[in-house]
Amino acid sequence: MLNEQEQLRFMRLWTAAQPAVSGYVRSLVRDRAVADEVLQETSLVLFRRFDEYDEQRPFVAWALGIARFQVLSLNRDAARSRVAFDTNLLARFTETWGELAPGASDRSLFLQDCIQRLAARARQMVRLRYYEELTAEEMARQLGGTGAAVRVALQRIRQQLRECVERQLRAEGETP
Amino acid sequence: MTDPEKLIAAWLDGSLNEAEQAELNDWLKTDDENMRRFTDAAMFEQQIQSATVAVEEQTAAASFNASVGGAPRREFSRRSFAVFAAALVVILALVFWPQHPADRTFATLEQTRAALWESGDLPTADGSRLEQGTLRLAEGLATLKFDSGAEVVLEAPATLILLDAMNCELTRGTTVSDIPESAVGFRITTPSADVVDYGTRFAVSVYEETGETHTQVIEGRVQVEYAQSDEVVELTTGQRNTVIGETLGAATDDAEHEHQTIAVKPVDHGPDWTLLEPVKDAYTGNVKDHNSNVLLLVKKDIRGGRVNRIAYIGFDLKDINQQRIEEAELLLYFAPTGWGLASHMPDATFSVYGMIGDVTDWDESILHKDRFPAALGTPEVVHLGSFTIPQGVQKGRFHVRTEVLSEFLRKHPTSEISLKVVRDTVARDNGTLVHGFASRRHPVLPPPTLAIRTDGELR
After folding, report:
1. Is the model's pLDDT at B37 over the cut of 90?
2. DSSP code of residue B265
3. Chain A partners within 8 Å of B48 (Cβ)
4. Is B266 exposed, middle or buried (0-12, 13-18, 19+ CB in 10 A)?
5. How confident is the model at residue A4 (pLDDT cuts 50, 70, 90)?
6. Between A and B, how many CB-CB pairs are < 8 A?
7. Is A154 in contact with B36 (Cβ distance < 8 A)?
8. Which of A132, A168, B17, B312 could form a disulfide with A110 if both were Cys (CB 3.0 to 4.6 A apart)?
9. Nearest Cα to B296, choosing from B168, B111, B206, B422?
10. Which residues of B224-250 are buried (b: 16+ CB within 10 A; e: fewer)?
11. Confidence (pLDDT) at B68
12. Could you tell me if B21 lies within 8 Å of chain A, comparing CB atoms?
């Protein structure tokens, strides 16, 4: 059992790493409830194995490695997992996620603002897709048009958001 | 080549078909930069999702406050709160977790079929997570999934020692393994060889008595490393080899032969023998939740009474010319019951009795009754023979083959005969082992069998 100080240290590290790990798991496990279970299971395993954590490595990389095994152990069909690529690619994906996560966290700060600036229809699509969690086909039924058209529009919105966020990041970099 | 952006977008939508997935995989494999681009897109997607949830909930809270005329204040988002609360619960649970060993598991017992386990040090329920330890499968099949991705089906009777996600040791029985790319190098150690896998499906059998190792590759490539030297034999699809004692057999291609999983011992009954199955069988003695419908339990307890289990077996000899019986043998197939401690049980002697008099009119409704129903009278019995099961053994075929048994069958006034099987040995103390042998309802084991040889024609 970890002593009190180690528990506090774990909590700090896990709190900091959780957004990256949770995004990682959700990107691979489509079903929200299953993803949450995987995340919870991951946190439990991390805690129990905290004595094995090598401080030379970033905590988030270690946590992602454990999350990867939790994702792998899912029954693919039941979880509607998106892990269609082989385990080798998954390992590289995990590693890359760990490398990119620290640098990407700033984007979250600006994304809310960028979403609110979207045109009304784009804003509505974002809400349906990411809040209501509808599929492209379900969205097409509500909005009219085809699923393919919705996908194209969503792709355009992603691009727009990305440009908006990057603009703001640059602006921040320039302000003293 | 499809535009990678399109492939990534389709992946995010979950609308990739198989061909596109393969194309995406190839594109990802060609360059680390591609992988970064893909990972970044997946990450950005999750960030959009979180941000959208936050924005929508702020909006909802603001409009709610506006509608009730309250002062707009910063609302803790409903969903964020739920997530926060869940995380808090986890963390509290973690902090107050009772003294708990670190998770050392690396495999899952995925599924079992008609499985009976002998005592081991690992859990045997479907879905159990497994750590280092030994699995002893007496009957049936068990599928193990290692975290490395390796899938191993264990075929009884088998003993498998789990070492880690890439290594195990097979000391008897058969495994059929399916090894994906992630588990290339998966190693099965046997007493005579190491079988190392290079992405394939293959079977390994170990004969307990001799330690010889039989390997057959169903698909792919494995290496068989001889335990006693550096010699290696490589097998590819369809090939097999055998390691026996001093010899590392060459790879052979005879796909004709079926994979032999146990050294088959001929049953020593010739063509002039008739094998009879029981028309009824049951046991008496009853302990709540310690009963079986497929095994006939046998136990003699120091306390006596209903904790004693006695088995009864009925045969009908109507197709046998009883007067001409020359030899007879009763065969019983024992299997572990899971109850009691084998270590408390010394070598156990069992006796088979023939029931005589007018008490043979019992039926299977006596099963699980506290004792043989008094309404059926106190059966008079004649001792027909005994056998011994050594300490620690809970399974195998045991038999009684005596002249008294033949005589009993020859002289029995009717064709319906009843046998009673009891354990003579009382264990030293409570918690003693319950023995059991297969009834005629057992799904895989043979039923109690009466083998009879007559000197002439069947009736």
Report:
1. yes
2. P
3. 111, 115, 126, 130, 158, 161
4. exposed
5. confident
6. 154
7. no
8. A168
9. B422
10. bbbbeeeeebebeeebbbbbeeeebbe
11. 57
12. yes
Query: What is the three-class DSSP state of B434?
Result: coil
A66 or B269: which leads in pLDDT: A66
Q: Which residues in A lie closer than 8 A to residue B181 (C-beta atoms)? A: 86-88
Q: What is the pLDDT of residues B231-244, one digit of tens each?
A: 788 888 878 888 87
**What percent of chain B is predicted at pLDDT more than 90?**
17
Nearest Cα neighbor of A81 from A34, A28, A41 is A28
Residue B130 identity (one-letter amino acid): L
Length of chain A: 176
pLDDT on residue B289 = 74
ipTM for the assembly = 0.88
- The amino acid present at B302, given as its one-letter code, is I
Domains identified in chain B and CATH numbers: 4-95 (no CATH), 107-248 (2.60.120.1440), 273-454 (2.60.120.230)
Task: Give the closest of B15, B53, B145 to A136, CB-based.
Answer: B15
- Cβ atoms of A82 and A27 closer than 8 Å: yes
Question: Residues B38-49: what's their mean pLDDT?
Answer: 92
Long-range CB pairs of A66-73 (<8 Å, 24+ gap) are A66/A42, A67/A21, A67/A24, A67/A25, A67/A38, A67/A39, A67/A42, A67/A94, A68/A94, A69/B147, A70/A25, A70/A38, A70/A41, A70/A42, A70/A45, A71/A25, A71/A28, A71/A29, A71/A38, A72/B147, A72/B149, A73/B108, A73/B145, A73/B147
